[in-house]
């Protein structure tokens, strides 16, 4: 009997059943932060250009003025996004072949090196190239992090833990924008700016300090990730059942400290071991092809809105005649809404089906954009609108991260997320490269309506998607 039990303990379906009965986070609590460092760096990197680029442009583009910065912002953002797409489509699938843990360290190292390179460049062309290198790392990292969380979080709380780790993203965005305001804008009486801001004719290198900080954050992340265990679901997909069994046993020991474990219900839901390249696992299956097309369109339209605000809100406001310090302060206050939305998503993310969060986000973003556009000289109203806008366009993201990874089997989970999120980032390029230069001629209200329209379109598409909340991963994606 003991021999039979031992053999069963290392069967694929039984390992999955043991994972699915866990109702609490079953890795060391510190690992939430270790995984979240990647999110922190990624969003620090996305948002640090928001306020700081006006100073950056004046340093690396001869004669660049605050009003001109919007004309030069598009290319580095688009090349960063292109690097993101390349990284996520080429590097992310490697994690489906060699494992999550090793690639999590490689991608974070590449991201950090790209940020350090950005900190030392002296020419616009080199700045653009360095942004591309950084994007290559963070694109792959984001996909792998989301797949990893999805595979180790409790079945009933996948969106919750993705959202909880997304709080680190909010912290990264907050640091990126507020450090930009402190280090790269001139001292200005409040509320038009920060009276203790540091930028001046003698201190024009604050933007370099920001990218240096980003690089150091990434390198710290590499060192911390050495402690992570490999994903047990990935180990099963590779036929490494003994190793998976050991990881799950350790998770069960941690879970047992919170109370008795539920009985194991082995439903025989086991994936086939990976035998083909990850892209083949998706494109040879019509089910996953349909899912991919829908998600890809959803992310593409939605990222038009996200990146117009995340990377270009300050320069957008400057092009609408806001003084740079005031524009930076309005954008910086908006990150308070980002932090709040991450907390709300972590607490309430499991209360609704995943796809229903997008219409809520789109509505809030429209309200926030309307408040900013109609604020005129009312700075308080502009700040409230900014917080509502940042709350709205970020609220759906961690839940959609969890939802997207749930659409694919373990053997191609990172690859599937990489496809839809990576290609989707091309929408961010459209928002910055095509729409942003039109802002001065469009006017305030039309500009915000056009930018917000991307998220509205994404929300409509999401409603045609599948329901995944609380279901077993192997049931959703066999």
Keywords:
478 residues; mainly alpha; Growth Hormone, Chain: A; globular; disordered N terminus
Structural account:
By secondary structure, the protein is an all-alpha fold. It has one domain: MFS general substrate transporter like domains (Growth Hormone, Chain: A, Up-down Bundle), CATH 1.20.1250. The protein is 74% helix and 0% strand. The protein is built from 23 helices and no strands. The longest helix has 31 residues, at 30-60. The protein is globular, with a radius of gyration of 22 Å. The two termini are 31 Å apart. Residues 1-8 have low confidence and may be disordered.
Helices and strands, with pairings:
Blueprint: H1 2-9, H2 12-20, H3 30-60, H4 69-90, H5 92-98, H6 100-120, H7 124-152, H8 158-184, H9 206-225, H10 232-237, H11 241-256, H12 278-283, H13 286-310, H14 313-319, H15 324-348, H16 357-373, H17 379-395, H18 397-406, H19 413-424, H20 426-435, H21 439-442, H22 444-462, H23 473-476
Helix pairs in contact: 2-11, 3-4, 3-7, 3-8, 3-9, 4-7, 4-19, 4-20, 5-6, 5-19, 6-7, 6-9, 7-8, 7-18, 7-19, 8-9, 8-15, 8-18, 13-19, 13-20, 13-22, 14-15, 15-17, 16-17, 16-22, 18-19
Second rung of CATH, namely the architecture = Up-down Bundle
Q: CATH superfamily assignment?
A: MFS general substrate transporter like domains
Evaluate the radius of gyration: 22 Å
Share of helix, binned: over 70%
Total strands: 0
Structural class: mainly alpha
User: How many helical stretches?
Assistant: 23
Q: Could you please say which CATH topology applies here?
A: Growth Hormone, Chain: A
Classify the beta-strand content into a percent band.
under 5%
Largest sheet: none
């Amino acid at each position: 009997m003991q021999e039979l039990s031992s053999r069963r303990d290392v069967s694929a379906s039984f390992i999955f059943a043991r994972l699915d009965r866990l109702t609490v986070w079953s890795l060391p609590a510190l690992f939430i932060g270790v995984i979240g460092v990647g999110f922190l760096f990624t969003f620090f990197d996305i948002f640090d250009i928001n306020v700081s680029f006006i100073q950056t442009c004046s340093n690396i583009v001869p004669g660049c003025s605050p009003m001109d910065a919007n004309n030069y912002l598009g290319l580095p953002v688009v090349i960063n996004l292109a690097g993101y797409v390349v990284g996520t489509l080429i590097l992310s699938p490697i994690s489906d072949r060699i494992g999550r843990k090793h690639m999590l360290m490689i991608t974070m190292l590449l991201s950090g090196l790209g940020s350090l390179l950005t900190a030392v460049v002296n020419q616009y062309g080199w700045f653009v190239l360095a942004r591309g290198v950084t994007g290559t790392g963070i694109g792959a990292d984001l996909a792998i992090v989301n797949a990893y969380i999805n595979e180790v979080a409790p079945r009933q709380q996948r969106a919750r833990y993705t959202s909880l780790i997304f709080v680190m993203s909010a912290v990264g965005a907050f640091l990126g924008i507020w450090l930009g305001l402190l280090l790269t804008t001139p001292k200005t009486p409040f509320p038009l700016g920060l009276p203790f801001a540091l930028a001046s004719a003698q201190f024009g290198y604050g933007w370099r300090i920001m990218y240096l900080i980003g690089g150091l954050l990434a390198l710290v992340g590499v060192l911390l990730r050495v402690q992570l265990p490999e994903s047990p679901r990935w180990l099963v997909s590779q036929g490494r059942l003994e190793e998976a069994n050991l990881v799950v046993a350790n998770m069960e020991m941690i879970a047992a400290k919170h109370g008795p474990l539920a009985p194991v219900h082995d439903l025989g839901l086991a994936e086939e071991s990976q035998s083909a390249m990850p892209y083949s696992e998706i494109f040879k299956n019509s089910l996953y092809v349909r899912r991919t097309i829908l998600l890809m369109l959803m992310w593409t339209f939605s990222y038009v809105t996200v990146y117009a605000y995340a990377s270009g809100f300050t320069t957008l406001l400057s092009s609408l005649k806001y003084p740079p310090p005031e524009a930076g302060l309005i954008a910086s206050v908006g990150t308070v809404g980002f932090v709040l939305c991450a907390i709300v998503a972590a607490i309430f993310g499991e209360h609704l089906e995943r796809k229903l969060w997008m219409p809520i986000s789109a509505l809030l973003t429209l309200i926030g954009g309307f408040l900013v556009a109609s604020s005129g000289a009312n700075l308080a109203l502009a700040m409230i609108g900014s917080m509502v806008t940042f709350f709205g366009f970020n609220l759906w993201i961690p839940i959609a991260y969890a939802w997207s990874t749930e659409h694919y089997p373990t053997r191609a989970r990172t690859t599937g997320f990489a496809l839809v999120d990576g290609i989707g980032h091309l929408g961010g390029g459209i928002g910055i490269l095509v729409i942003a230069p039109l802002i001065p001629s469009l006017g305030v209200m039309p500009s915000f309506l056009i930018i917000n329209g991307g998220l509205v379109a994404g929300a409509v598409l999401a409603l045609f998607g599948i329901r995944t909340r609380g279901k077993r991963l192997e049931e959703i994606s066999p």
